[in-house]
Specification:
This protein is of the alpha+beta class. 26% of the residues lie in helices and 31% in strands.
Length: 284
């Protein structure tokens, strides 16, 4: 592994097995230093865990990471820092929450991806299979950018929009989001999609992927006015994938019924896709 600016991102998943080998020093072990994307070797000594690039993670800091399961940590020469921020825009704490693979984003402790029986990267792949991105794609709610990254593998251009600068800042420190800022066919824009979409051109996008926060946090992104704008910016027979949530939950079933009716009202042919926890609309 080549150190990236002498910085690594770790969680209890990576660090706890190392602390359990503290009595076996000195020794070398293999571990991921980027939340499961790649693996490299580190050296354990009485002073701590020696990372590539001359960075020492002390045993005290390692124990801290190992016992805090709800957040990931950035590790540099200066020490450790929890990857969580207070957002002045929303008044909520946003954080990188470890899953053993790609982390999810939490808003006030609420995960923004499915993590039970899956992980955020596979959760996103299910959405992409239903969305079928191609041509020009609008990703309305960026989050950590997994949707934009996976869509960019199939599409010509992806415009991804994020309201909260704090979320964009966390994405920049998430190893799994690196391609969001590196791929030339992804364009990241910090804006309120509700306002922004009104200025986008008619019939411009082939696909819109709409994965908003839950209804209680962003009800205006589930409304007829917003859906009419999505319909307007889509090309004829353009495709919308709208993530809603588990069809097994009573609240999600209720929201789904309302969403499908409002999408029909503005001119979509609609069908439910339970395997992707959402609905697909095609512009009539």
């Amino acid at each position: 592994m080549i150190p990236l600016a002498n910085m690594y991102v770790l969680s209890h998943y990576e660090v706890r097995p190392l602390t359990e080998r503290r009595e076996q020093v000195p020794t070398e072990v293999e571990v991921s230093l980027d939340l499961g994307k790649t693996r490299g070797r580190v050296r354990l000594t009485s002073s701590g865990i020696h990372l590539p690039g001359g960075i020492l993670l002390t045993w005290e800091d390692a124990e801290h990471i190992a016992t805090h399961e709800n957040v990931c940590y950035k590790v540099t020469r200066e020490g450790i820092r929890a990857l969580q921020l207070f957002s002045p825009l929303t008044g909520r704490v946003v954080a990188l929450y470890p899953t053993g693979r790609a982390p999810t984003l939490t808003l006030s402790g609420i995960p923004m991806h499915r993590i039970k029986g899956t992980d955020p990267w596979r959760d996103t792949a299910a959405k992409i299979r239903s969305a079928r991105p191609h041509g020009r794609v609008l990703d309305t709610c960026m989050g950590l950018g997994y949707t934009a990254i996976q869509a960019a593998a199939r599409a010509d251009v992806v415009l991804t929009v994020e309201l909260d600068p704090a979320v964009i800042a966390l994405a920049r420190e998430n190893p799994w989001s690196a391609d969001l800022f590196a791929l030339p066919n992804i364009h990241v824009l910090q804006a309120d999609i509700f306002d922004l979409i009104q200025g986008l051109p008619n019939a411009w996008f082939s696909v819109v992927i709409h994965d908003p926060p839950m209804f209680s946090l962003a009800g205006h992104l589930y409304g007829r006015e917003f859906y009419a704008q999505i319909h307007r910016v889509l090309r004829p027979r353009g495709r919308l994938f709208h993530y809603i949530g588990s069809p097994e939950k009573k609240m999600a079933r209720s929201v789904t019924r309302g969403v499908m009716q409002r999408l029909r009202d503005v001119g979509f042919e609609v069908k439910e896709v339970p395997r992707a926890f959402g609905v697909v609309g095609v512009k009539r």
